[in-house]
Structures are given as C-alpha cells and as structure tokens.
Design brief:
Oligomer: single chain
Strand content: under 5%
Helix content: 55-70%
Largest sheet: 2 strands, antiparallel
Radius of gyration: 23 Å
Structural class: mainly alpha
Number of helices: 9
Length: 150
C-alpha cells in the first residue's frame, strides 16, 4: 500500500505480539504504547488488530500490565487474583463491583459546558475568597446551570 507517496508495509497482530513478548523477555520492558497513525488506513487490518487485541488471552495481560491504571471490561478478568489479592487493587475492584454511575454529560451534552466552566469550583471560590454566603453562591451556580442546561 502507498501512503503519502511511500510504500507502507503492514505487520500482522501476531507479529506485533511476538515483538512485544521479545521486548519484555529480552529487555524487561514494562510498558508498551501503540502509536500508529496509519492503523485505520486499512480498515480490514484495523478490525483484525482490534479483534486480536480483544481476545481474553491478549487483553487481560495488557490490562494487568498497566498495574491498575485500567480496569478490565470483562467480569472473568476482573475476578482474577491480580484484582482481588492486592490490597490497593482490591479497593478498585470493590468500587467497580458495587456499580458505577455515568457522568451527567453522558446524558446531556450541555453538562460538558458546565464542567468546562467549573461552576462548582466557582461557587466555592465565591464563598472562600469573595466572602459570599453559601446560599448566594449556590443560587448563582444554579442560575448558570439552568441557563446552560435548561
């Protein structure tokens, strides 16, 4: 395939996995990041890679390799000892197992405006810095929320 006037050679998902295993085993690499500006240039290849990456035997070690920065999307992976035996990750496991609530902006995009304006912190600032009463600061905040979100 040609990209910006240059030939571009694709590698299979298996080839990438082999190289990652080589880097980990040979050099002790602890983190791998994917940066491929051309991944979606070939949709078939992109789908093949995502399908490969989402297989339990590939996804679970990748998520666990992040040492708790990400949480598994599959219940079987979340139930593994990696998440239930470490005292810190056990807390994360308990939080996710109890259920999560989506942010309000997933229901109404207008909340992203309020989030960007930081209306809650502004209300606190009015009380702490400007010496407003909490009632006055909250009234201002609620008025802005109604103005934006309706």
């Amino acid at each position: 395939m040609e990209f910006w006037g240059h030939d571009y050679r694709y590698r299979s998902a298996e080839s990438l996995l082999d190289e990652m295993e080589f880097l980990v085993e040979t050099y002790g690499i602890e983190e791998i990041q994917f940066e491929d500006d051309n991944l979606t240039q070939n949709k078939k290849r992109a789908k093949e890679f995502v399908r490969f990456a989402m297989q339990d035997e590939n996804l679970t070690p990748y998520v666990e390799g992040a040492l708790g920065r990400w949480y598994p999307v599959k219940k079987a992976a979340a139930a593994r000892p990696f998440w239930t035996e470490d005292p810190h990750r056990k807390i994360v496991h308990a939080q996710f197992s109890a259920g999560t609530v989506p942010f309000e902006f997933t229901r109404n995009w207008k909340f992203t405006i309020l989030n960007n304006e930081n209306v809650w912190a502004k209300a606190v600032n009015r009380v702490v810095v400007d010496k407003w009463t909490p009632e006055k600061a909250v009234d201002e905040m609620i008025a802005r929320i109604k103005q934006v979100a309706g």
